[in-house]
Amino acid sequence: MRRLGAALLALGVAASLDMGPHNWRTPSPSLAAEIPLAERRSGYAFMGRETRAMQDDDTANPGMLWVLDGATLWSKKAGAAGRACADCHGDAATSMKGVAARHPSFDAARGRPVTLEQRINLCRVERQEAPALAWESRDLLALTAFVARQSRGVPIDVAVDARVQPFLDAGRAAFHRRQGQVNLACSQCHDERWGQRLAGNVIPQAHPTGYPLYRLEWQSLGSLQRRLRNCLVGIRAEPYPFGAPELVELELYLMWRARGMPFEAPAVRP
Amino acid sequence: MARALVNVPARARRGEVVEIKTLIAHPMETGFRRTQLGEPIPRDIIQRFVCTYNGVEVFRADLHPAIAANPFIVFSTVATESGTLVFEWTGDHGFAVTQSAAITVE
């Protein structure tokens, strides 16, 4: 069922691009089409009234169910060290404010950027001496959502310095690289054709302002990497595994591309 | 971890119609799906939602397999007197969650 949906989606891409201003077989002008800063819009702006209302009201936003779970986990002792997140970080409302808006951030020990999920797992393994949580597991999503919730309204600000620059460049290259059997680059939809339709859905600008977010289609909360893997399947490329360096670089580029936009996790998207 | 979010206005005037919003975490597995190996996934849904207001039932809903995960139920009732609203979700495999909220009627 999911495979059929992906195939239909991919067909939709090909069909709608054929009718677009460019023939989909001609190369797109690389890097030229980045969205001007003033024209950037969150996926929120492309949603219907009902879905916006769902995100705006904390008692209607299903993402808050994960945030509540995360709040419990925050103060629950775990691992051989017998420490909870709260034992080191204290009140998340102050200590975690803005943290999600700064990730992926550079990890000096690893010499590469890590996402918020990876940061949480690093803390678990190294400080709490507990086993790492699986990607997309309820507990990891809950903790990520709880931490991300503390950054609501904070402008996205990933730090880019000489150490991070090569990873950012790699992410940018991936965004503009044609991939998969459908031979599409992310930029062809999200830079060049945002606001147009893809099989009845409006193509957003791909600013990851609200992850982890509740997607109505998933009937669940999901991470940005889940979303990226979805897109890769849609263009019939083989998706990278969760936590792959390529996905982290892409995530880094997307967050940099959304710099200055307010963080809105946990968002709701159709 | 069963979680429910309930939104009831803390205060209301007597006779006022108040809106009540409830959200509960539940997978609402239909029972019609199969795993990749062809094994049927057993049904796991909430079957019934009941709201009582000072012991009197004011709202009840039967839920069915076609309802999406994490059911969000919004309804209204007339604020008659101060007291407690009790919300109860029951379903397959002994699923039972109870939550309550206080309302002050002036």
**The CATH fourth-level homologous superfamily of chain A:** Cytochrome c-like domain
Global structural class of chain B: mainly beta
The average pLDDT score of chain A comes to 88
**Arrangement of strands in the largest sheet of chain B:** 2-8-7-4-5
Cα-atom radius of gyration of chain A = 19 Å
Q: Might you state the CATH topology name of chain A?
A: Cytochrome Bc1 Complex, Chain D, domain 2
Outline of chain B, from the CA principal axes? elongated
Structural class of chain A: mainly alpha
CATH architecture descriptor name of chain B: Sandwich
Q: Tell me the fraction of residues in β-strands of chain B, as a range.
A: over 45%
What does this structure look like?
The complex is a heterodimer of chains A (270) and B (106). Chain A is mostly helical. Chain A has a single domain (1-270), classed as Cytochrome c-like domain (Cytochrome Bc1 Complex, Chain D, domain 2), CATH 1.10.760.10. Helix content of chain A is 41%, strand content 7%. Chain A has helices at residues 2-18, 49-56, 63-74, 85-89, 92-95, 116-128, 138-149, 165-176, 186-190, 224-234, 245-257; strands spanning 105-107, 112-114, 197-198, 201-202, 213-215, 220-222, 268-269. In chain A, β3 and β4 form a beta hairpin. Chain B has no helices and 8 strands. In chain B, the strands form 2 sheets. In chain B, strands 2-8-7-4-5 form a 5-stranded mixed β-sheet, with no helix packed on it. In chain B, strands 1-3-6 form a 3-stranded antiparallel β-sheet, with no helix packed on it. At the A-B interface, α3 of A face β1 and β3 of B.
